[in-house]
Amino acid sequence: MTITLLLENVSCAGCVKKIETKINALPDVEQALVDFPQRRLNVEGSISNDHLIHALTEIGYRSRLASNDIEDRARQKAQQTAQYKTHIRNTLLALGVGIPLMIAGMLMDEMTVRTPQDQIIWGIVGLLTLAILLGPGRHFFNGAWSSLKNRSTTMDSLIALGTGAAWLYSTAVVLFPEMLPENSRHLYYEASAMIIGLVNFGLAMEIRARGKTSEAVERLLNLQPKTARVIRNDKELDLPLDLVEAGEILRIRPGEQIPVDALVVEGNSLIDESMLSGEPLPVNKSVGDQVSAGTLNKSGALIIKAEKVGSETALSRIIEMVKQAQASKPEISRMADNVAAIFVPVVILCSLLTALLWYLLGPEPHLAYMLITATTVLIIACPCALGLATPMSVMVGVGKAAEYGILIRNGQALQSASQLQTLVLDKTGTITEGAPRVTDILGEQPNMLQLAASLETASEHPLAEAIVRHAQARQETLLPVERFKAISGRGAKGVINNIKVTLGNKAWMAEQKIDCSRFETQALTLAEQAKTPVYVSLDGQLAGVLAIADPVRQDSVTAIARLKAAGINVIMLTGDNPQTAAAVAQQVGVDNFIAGVLPAGKALEVEKLQQAGSKVGMCGDGINDAPALARADVGFAIGNGTDVAIESADMVLIRNSLHSVADAIELSRATLSNIRQNLFGAFIYNTLGIPVAAGILFPLTGMLLSPVIAGAAMAFSSVTVVSNANRLRLFKPGQ
């Protein structure tokens, strides 16, 4: 069972680590992950909601249970808007005090206390600054106090310590100037006010930028209409979607979005499915066709019968999958998480060490230099940039993938897809359309097709379906089968009207000791034309050959060319004979293929490639592809594939096109590149920023970094990370 809680006072990556550590340690919890950008906690396990909320309260975090997606999003959006306005107001108040003070400091020779009159003036300024700390800066001090009570530290701790230390030192100078050397009586009220203002502004910009990253899910949620027109007792009623049940009849007018997954029972129309599949062209739907929730009825009126409603619709499952993937973490994030967990305590330690070194080794005035450097170290460090570096990119990347009809199960799949070197493609239904048809019949016996089709009625193989369809099209009467037996990847046999019928490939015939030499030459010719020869034997004697062809998808050639251009080694895997496999491979531009592979052997072939040192992806659609999809580093399931294949895959491709695989790999590489840029920026910023703040350049330049500049740098470092992640929203695959 998955429980989702909405978190209210999570401020940095340190909070994320603390929450995950606490919740993962609870009994009945299998896994807990914090979605930092969305401020959500997803918990797998049998723990109760109350127990979870209580555990979070114990470590100082407020939370509430997530409910309806649309309501939660609306509430979260309203909350973010309110937070944004609050931060902007706090910014204006703090800078309204800080900027005049900073200008005054530039115009005055020095901001210091020399006379009783100075004490009165600066005392008033001190009270004004205290109002800023307790007003616009109140949430930093509340967060720091809450963390302290729980014996931990967060970004709030750094801001509160830095601004609080600057204010306390300045107030000590104002109240007791005679206790300090004259050259140590500098005041730093403007630093406290400016830092509070700049950090609030940074938080406001982060909220604004973060809102853009969730647009993909917002768009999917907006596809769900709030009402549906239901026909009950010959009356049409507009009802809330929650009241619509499976089996009910609905009317869909032109221009309306379809509210449920349904079957068309009357009418025909063009349906725009681009919002789900990424395909721009509308699809014609008529009686007997399936329509999906969220798609748009373009022209005609339809009467539909609801089959899946609410959370059971394809659209709802897509939204849930996207949300889960956005909240998951790729392996690359672990280092950042581990660093973030100890980051704030280490920064505080660096600040104390900096203060000590300046006090013991620095020039006069010791106290002033000590305060400036220690405060600047506290203020410049930014754990938020580290915490946001990976989840923001994953969130945008997964959302962007959904726009192109690619559903990614987790963040790790993104990272693995970016590293793929080899892609194994199943032939039938992946490279080809998966709709084989009989093209040639060799043999004179008039009842051969009827008997072959009768035998194949018990089989689920695509070639079997092609034989049955062909017989039905020729109005053959299908007969009952006795003692049916099918061998996967070989063929089938049974008894029909006391005739022993055996059907399958050449290897199966050899096992049954049936001589195929009579049609061997013709069969080879058919195979070289990319047709699959299926041998038919009646009472132990070869009766003939059925040739079956599965047309290659129109865009397979260009998609495979894209994959090869991206440096991917493309391999075709098929249970077909080598001649047919070679013909298809040549037709689509695949240089390497493995033919005659039994269903059970597909996973083994993937494993062999992995053992050779290659990162392997597998793309398939059938039940027999599921083990290979699960065994591959990344499994891609074509959208019209079986449920088993889709459940085994890491990525589900709604479009029935190999271009989606190329898009997924291209987007994965762009996302991982974006994550690396963010992590590099965050690490470099903190690695260089902290030593500079500590005064490492002072011996060379004689200058120290101002706490105000440090505050501005810290505020904009997290905004930079979020903005860089948002660049992925501009991604377009290069078809």
UniProtKB/TrEMBL annotation:
One of its GO terms (biological process) is copper ion export. It comes from the Bacteria. It catalyses: Cu(+)(in) + ATP + H2O = Cu(+)(out) + ADP + phosphate + H(+). It is found in: Cell membrane. The chain crosses the membrane at residues 91-108, 120-137, 158-176, 188-205, 339-361, 367-390, 679-698, 704-722. Keywords: ATP-binding, Cell membrane, Copper, Copper transport, Hydrolase, Ion transport, Magnesium, Membrane, Metal-binding, Nucleotide-binding, Phosphoprotein, Repeat, Translocase, Transmembrane, Transmembrane helix, Transport. This is Copper-exporting P-type ATPase. The lineage of its organism: Bacteria, Pseudomonadati, Pseudomonadota, Gammaproteobacteria, Oceanospirillales.
